[in-house]
Amino acid sequence: MTGQRLLLEMHGVSKHFPGVRALHDITFDVRAGEVHGLVGENGAGKSTLMGVASGALVATTGEVRIDGTPASGEPDRARELGLAIVRQEPALMPDLSVAENLYLGLPHGRRPALSGLNDWARRLLNHWSSDVTIDPRDHITTLNAEQRFIVEIVKALECEPKVLVLDEPTEHLATEDVERLFARVRQVTARGAAVVYISHRIREVQAIADRLTVLRDGEGQGTFQARELSEDQIVSLIVGGDLDRTFPEKAAPGEHPVVLSTDGFSGPGFTDVSLQVRAGEILGLAGIDANGQREFMRALAGITRGRGAVTLGGKGVEIRSSQASKRLGISYLPGDRHREGIFPELSVRENFGIRSLGDQSTAGFVSARAESRRTREAIAQFAVKTPHGETPIQSLSGGNQQKVVLSSVLAGNPRVLLVDEPTQGVDVGARAEIYRVIREAARSGVAVILVSSDQQEVAGLSDHVAIFSRGRVVDMLSGDRVTEDNITSSVLKSTGQRDKHHRAVGSFWKWAAGNAAPLVMVASAILLLGTVAGLWNPFYVSPRSLSNMMMLAATLALVAYGQQFLMLVSGIDLSVGPTMGLLQVVGSFFLLKDTGLGTQALGWALIMGVSVVVGVVNWALVVGLRLHPMVATLATFMAIQAVSLILRPVPGGMIDSQIMLALGTKVGIVPVTFIVAVVLALVMEYVLYRGALGLAMRGLGSREDSARTAGIVPGRTRLIGYVGCSVFAGLASITMIAQVGIGDPRAGLGYTLGSIAAVVIGGASLFGGRGSFIGALLGAIFITQVNSVTVFLRLSQEWQQYLLGGLILASVALYSKSREKVVQA
Amino acid sequence: MTSTLPKEAGPAGQTVAARIKDTVLNEFSWIWGGTVILFILCTFIAPGVVRPAAISSMLPFAAILAITAVGMTVVIQQRGLDMSLPGTMTIAGLLFAKIGFMTGSTLLAVPLTLAIAVCIGIVNGLLVAKVNITPIVVTLATNAILMGAVRAVSGGSPMTAPAELAAFSHGKLLGVPMTLILAVGFIIVISVVTKRTIAGRRFVAVGANPAAATAAGIPILRYQVATYAIAALCFAVAGMLFTGFIGSASQTAGVDFLLPAIAAVVVGGTPFSGGRGSVIASGVAALFMAQLGQMVLALGASTAIQLLVQALAIIIAVAVRHLPALFGYMRR
């Protein structure tokens, strides 16, 4: 095998994070045509190493070459050189369809024509498996973890990479898909490419890999021919021959009273768990990730709901919420520190005190003196490295953040302590501190439950260990049997294959969450309301009334398109209303009766020119000065309104009647402006789903980092969004001229709220990524209809507003509910 | 607020200077400096607006604006925005006048109006926190409904304010306008509650990171709903005071307060990212914005220029807060 081409070379690669040494001087190479297994425990540095290879992370020292060319630490560059990576957490854009994600995942040269996208995607998916359950039109949000992973693999395979990196690929796959994956991996190597196969399932790696490299604590343990090592030899390489970490002494033997016990406890992700934990002891829960151990703990913490008997201190209890759990004396140290552990912008003092406010307060008032004393004591006791208690916790290193959270959790004097991954992202020095603290808590009589994916940690800390597999406890280790080897072999040798599972979602909800549902619902509402109003009062459906409504709806629709366009990239423009007023005021100086064609042309040009300027200013404030879009466009709202009022303190400047007449042209009873609005909606909708621009905007609004990886430039795409929004406001202002006929600086004000209401009723998301121009059109028609229908139904005027408000709430509540229902966790 | 004595400093507190710097020189202190500079500037370029008479006619407006800004601040601290300010403020003025005349008792009208306002806030809060709708959409919709109710209650014409209310709104205690006393009271109470009570600390935590707050055993729904109730309460008080001040309950009373209230929060320095915030800074910013407006008008500019200057103030206020980070970056 020697003398073969090296497709990936890494020399002396080290990577340091603040306070943590993740990789130390690793040298790693991958030959053409081989499968190279990369094994090690969680946190050993496997994913970090591949992050460096793919350019997502920049090495502190060391060199990376892909197919002989130095890669400079940029994902785009690595991808061009032929490295594709399939991550544990797929980098897909959730609001885009499967087909669109596959499309954007490919380099430009390999992308197909957008017209046959779904068929192309279906072919790709069928290539993976003929009975694939994924519809290319499905949104990623509606897929479960397994399906998302398949999409990610299909995407990577289609790139025909020289080096394919698979990071824990079988975690989410069912047995038959694992076989499919292996077949595909062999095809990849058969054409001369290489595969890096990261896994902690040793049997799998033995089955597929030619060579394997072992990592432990960020250091390489050597590269071997896979066939030359037995499973046990690999395990001992992963674990390390000698115990190089010091753990505190375990609990003295003896009968301690049971503090917490469960009997037949079930919940999301775990089934029929019966465990007990005694005062002064640490119960470790081990298993491969997502096999129920963490889920069990979260149910005890009250974050999810479990069913079954829980006994605390001899009394049956029910844990309905995290608050109830806390009140029972159960304290929880979350595993995901950034998401659930810290309050990043708050100070160390505030973070420390939040879980035990009662201990530093009298009659509900926090005592500054007691608080500052307790904080100082905690900082000293846990050796937290921080300048002082007022420092925001986010500026501390990971280990120190964790110490603050742990001290805070313990400060509540719990009876039961739940600890999830206590040392994740924590450097070796701080680990020992944390182990000592947890053991001391136990020694003081607290019952501790520990979840960790680090087997050595579980072995070193726990008095008893429960092994979880597929949501059930499959083995129990106690006393001398609690060793790392026993745990690792029990965990790794358990046949942790999973069955295919798919959460059933009612077909109504699935439909209601789709793109078409808002359109159908709003269109039916329009027809229903129109019919009722027409039966009640025939004048409502008279040509004159209909054509008036269409005229008004056209203006609202056009400005709503602008709002919708911008909302795709998760922006919002509050200034559209005043912008319409300003543009009309500008027009009122030029579009006059006796000014001649030249001046009038200048007027039209200025209207469009000014609208572009407004868009650029908004963009500069949001992207350049990093103002919140609402704050930025609120400021421009005021500024633009001010300019309009300076130009025309009172309404003035009658627009040329010829222009008015032209703008009011009708075909039959349908105003031309309305026809234009409808045509624009169809064109924009087509661009949104079939155009590269629409795809780029939806992708960016859906998930910025993934969009960036797909080669979408956020700044430029947002510029198009802001300018587009203002230009649509410009078009709307032109149609508004036909209704107002005079330069009125206040004429447009109502359209800010109107445009937002129209797109929201039409099904847009304010968070970006999804929306519809036809929806915006229907929303605009509906609002116009509601505004006029009250008159014909002889309802008092306030009903206009009741209906508008009520309908917005009803529609958005329905969309929000339906999307919640179909999103797979 | 951190009244740490030197002897208390201990091992972690050797950098007392750094603590004081962090406490005194933070993003909320800019507005104090800005306001002082503004008043000094006024004495030079527009001495008319710093005369006692001018100031005492500006203060009630600043005070009412400050009360609305306080309500808006707590919502923004919870990553929200309350666009139902105009509706709540207007309906409160109207209901107060109506109930006052119907029952003949101001003492009864005040709690009834406030109770209704709290109900409005609870509905907003439940729609945001429980039904999971974006705050701006919820409050835009409820504002539309409230404006409809305004029309129904008023019957389309303004109502005269009860005499007691007018007297209260114009009243003074030891030469200080009652509105100002009330505004300062609101600011102090809410500031003390958020900074110094258990409930307030939890409120801040929920705004800073709702998921972490849940994991810490805080019932976040309760706090999220209460946020909107407090905001509505502030808007209602502002609405009643404004009604008393102008002598009648109009149907548009609150409309002109929405943008200035948000502007005051932004200028005061409360970020949209949740958690951190200062009602004191928002209150001072309300004073700043009111005085800035007076100064611009006194210089002979139109209300349009006034609006333009306020818009610039927002942009400058936000941009200026990037400066310390920029300096810090250059020092490194």
What does this structure look like?
- The complex is a heterodimer of chains A (825) and B (332).
- Helices cover 50% and strands 16% of the residues of chain A.
- With 825 residues, chain A is an alpha/beta fold.
- Chain A starts with 5 loop residues before the first strand and ends with a helix.
- By secondary structure, chain B is mainly α.
- Chain B has one domain: Orthogonal Bundle (ABC transporter involved in vitamin B12 uptake, BtuC), CATH 1.10.3470.
- Helix content of chain B is 73%, strand content 2%.
- Chain B has 15 helices and 4 strands.
- The radius of gyration of chain B is 21 Å and the shape is globular.
- The interface between A and B is large, with 86 and 78 residues.
Q: Tags for this entry?
A:
heterodimer; A: 825 residues; alpha/beta; Rossmann fold; ABC transporter involved in vitamin B12 uptake, BtuC; 3 domains; 6-stranded mixed beta sheet; 31 helices; 27 strands; B: 332 residues; mainly alpha; two-stranded antiparallel ribbon; 15 helices; 73% helix; 2% strand; disordered N terminus
Low-confidence blocks of residues of chain B? 1-14
Q: Structural class of chain B, please?
A: mainly alpha
Structural class of chain A: alpha/beta
**Could you say which overall geometry of chain A the principal axes of the C-alpha atoms support?**
globular
Strand tally of chain A: 27
* Proportion of residues in β-strands of chain A: 15-25%
Mean pLDDT of chain A: 85
The gross shape of chain B turns out to be globular
Helix content of chain B: over 70%
Offer a concise description of the structure.
The complex is a heterodimer of chains A (825) and B (332). By secondary structure, chain A is of the alpha/beta class.
SSE blueprint and pairings:
The complex is a heterodimer of chains A (825) and B (332).
Chain A: E1 6-17, E2 20-31, E3 35-39, H1 46-54, E4 61-66, E5 69-70, H2 75-80, E6 83-86, H3 98-105, H4 117-128, H5 145-158, E7 163-167, H6 175-190, E8 194-198, H7 202-208, E9 211-216, E10 219-225, H8 231-239, E11 258-267, E12 270-273, E13 276-278, E14 282-286, H9 293-300, E15 307-312, E16 315-317, H10 322-327, E17 330-333, H11 337-341, H12 348-353, E18 361-362, E19 365-366, H13 368-381, H14 398-411, E20 416-420, H15 428-443, E21 447-451, H16 455-461, E22 464-469, E23 472-478, H17 484-493, H18 507-513, H19 516-536, H20 543-567, H21 576-590, H22 596-624, H23 629-647, E24 652-654, H24 657-663, E25 666-667, E26 670-671, H25 672-690, H26 692-702, H27 704-709, H28 714-740, E27 742-743, H29 751-761, H30 773-792, H31 798-822
Parallel strand pairs in A: 3-8, 3-9, 6-7, 7-8, 14-21, 14-22, 17-20, 20-21
Antiparallel strand pairs in A: 1-2, 1-4, 4-5, 9-10, 11-12, 11-13, 11-15, 15-16, 18-19, 22-23, 24-27, 25-26
Chain B: H1 16-24, H2 30-45, H3 52-77, H4 85-103, H5 106-129, H6 135-154, E1 159-160, H7 163-170, E2 172-173, E3 176-177, H8 178-196, H9 198-208, H10 210-215, H11 220-246, E4 248-249, H12 258-268, H13 279-298, H14 303-320, H15 322-331
